[in-house]
Design brief:
The structure is a single chain. By secondary structure, this protein is of the alpha+beta class. It has one domain: Quinohemoprotein amine dehydrogenase alpha subunit, domain 2 (Lipocalin, Beta Barrel), CATH 2.40.128.120. 21% of the residues lie in helices and 39% in strands. Strands 1-2-3-5-6-7-8-9 form an eight-stranded antiparallel barrel. A hairpin with a 2-residue loop joins strand 7 and strand 8. The radius of gyration is 16 Å and the shape is globular. The N terminus is likely disordered.
Length: 160
């Protein structure tokens, strides 16, 4: 019983500690009208973000229906600055190496994605998306997650 109480307190603290920042895994389904969360008919978009002070770092994954085509980010593929509930970031497509500016904003527990540029290339990143925070701690395999955290730590300390 004591173990469950400790786990509950730690989980609640983690949610409270990250409630006002963008850290975490954010996901959404992008579906045709009338279709809901069907991996064979919908695209899946996920971001894993780490925020420290006014800096944001992370990676992305976009998969078309059935994962026929993918756009995966490196560690990191997302870097930028946070001011209040809005982040201005640069994202690098893993498919084409195209770089583009994106605005991320927190509102009512959701993360709004707005691509500000439309460079040429065969990248798969959406113009707009509304993502929700996942309960998953990470969306990556442990080795890549370790690599992403190390790369973000370097990005956070480089500007100091």
């Amino acid at each position: 019983m004591r173990r469950w109480i400790v786990l509950f307190v730690l989980a609640a603290w983690h949610l409270w500690a990250h409630a006002d920042d963008m850290s975490g895994v954010w996901t959404t389904w992008i579906c045709p009208q009338g279709v809901q969360a069907d991996p064979g008919k919908c695209s899946n978009f996920a971001l894993e973000l780490h925020q420290q002070d006014g800096r944001l770092c992370g990676s992305h994954l976009f998969a078309t229906p059935g994962a026929a085509r993918m756009d995966e980010g490196s560690a990191p593929s997302i870097t930028g600055e946070v001011s209040g509930d809005t982040a201005n970031v640069v994202i690098t497509s893993g498919r084409t190496a195209a770089r583009m500016r994106v605005e991320l904003s927190l509102a009512k527990g959701a993360l709004q994605w707005l691509r500000l540029q439309n460079p040429s290339g065969d990248y798969l990143l959406p113009m707009t998306a509304r993502l929700t925070r996942s309960k998953s701690r990470t969306m990556f395999a442990p080795l890549f997650e370790h690599e992403l955290k190390a790369a973000c730590l370097m990005a956070f300390t480089a500007g100091k």
